[in-house]
TrEMBL record:
Protein name per UniProt: Uncharacterized protein
Superkingdom of origin: Bacteria
Species for this entry: Phytopseudomonas seleniipraecipitans
Amino acid sequence: MLIMSVSGRLLFVSYDVVRNIPSGRKLSVTQPGFDVYEITPGTQGEPDIVAAGVDLGGGLDSIVYGRVQEEKITLCAEKQCADIKPGGKVNHWSVDELEGYEFVEVAFDADSAYALVRKQWDDRVDGNLTADDARLSLVRLSPDKADLEPITTNGTPYELVVNDKKPSWKVASSAEELSDLLLYEFSRMPNGGGISFGDNNLEGRVAWNQVYYLNGLISLAQGDLGVSSPGLVEYARRRVRAEVDLIARLADSDYPGYRVKRYSLDREPLLFSLHLGRIASLLERTEQAGLGTPAVKNALASIKKELLSFEHTVEHPIGCQLVVGEICRTLAYRQGYPFWADGVNVPYNYVSGYVGGLLAVSNDAASVDYAAELMVPLLVQEKFSELPKTWRYWGFEGQKGWGYSNGKSLNTSDWVGNQAGLDIAHITYRSMDATTLLILNIHRPDVVNAETVVHIKKLVSAGMLLPSVNEFFYQTDSVATLDSVVSARYSRSTQAWQIQSQIWALSDLAKNNE
């Protein structure tokens, strides 16, 4: 995640995916922190561990910032910093003043650090976006305090540096500057900007990282978004062609193929139709952009067979019943599979991810009708006829929960249900649902009507759905104009997946600044 070198020492920061227990694997989540290793000229065999489990509030996709001063190592990530001293002793910096904030960028001085920060925001908890949620501030960090001050500027601050204890940064406002900002954003992402280039899907990074930012790059490569400079377009085209080709080649073998260990009980390699659907959508969009390779065509054919058959996937089709008594169809996790909710129906985004992929690879009448049937429970149970601004993550048993007497899961005998938590789906999952509804409208306007399409477009403009939903509206020449606060909020990315939406935010800013 981060490599640092000083005379005679090579240090690298890693994240233990085996110790980490994500929410998709078990009900109890474990974030193990970061491990720091050292290689010196005398190192033989495995690297020496300097410190294990350094908790900075970060995870697998976090950007980690660091410096080395003699025997002291300083690391920052997400919203915390810590010093690691000889012997592995960890001293966390006092950042109480940053409660509710997150790092956008961090730059180090000799005895302190500076950061561009913004408020953390989750509409399930914090409500609608406000100007305060979109504003960047500067903070001076030291081991014993954090001093926060707002930044007033007519553009987007980026590329923070510190010289002689004086912080400075660039400001992007013109189309050319915003294009430079995007290139800079990619360059500072994990692995030297490589992010997940060449990864397999065993940790879910193809489905939940590459699909996001590569779709963003396809948008840049496809057309003039106002920030598509020739250099940026060339970068996008070259990277998409090379990176998606590697993703496609994973289909050549069953293992690792598109299997994932991250979400199974004991890290068994499982195949999810949700992941296949998301990957299929990316591959087909790559083809449509003229950036595909023979491997992409072969992978699409392979994925199509699995999406139509469910032969090897965790999910499989089941019947269901709506509140009104109407029989319906949905998907469920197969009973007995090593997944915490085996036997239970899947959340809505599992269905929409599958349906989006199915419609990407097969648009015959049978596939379209089946796709429409699968989306009916979301439309009915979440009352889309009333044009909701938000909707729930789960339906049926997953929403209500289950007990010893009526549970279908062999691995989790009782659970209170999604209704006991935040209930509302995260904006990323709602955006998946919405995008699939928009695609279904093209094929079945009787199921998803024009009023729903207009409503979804308004939700994008207001920041109730991700700006990246504009990928669909761009194809219909009707891109949703973002509210200024939405463009400002998404103008910077703290993790790679956010770049997909950042592109549309900067596109709006560029057009508004013409």
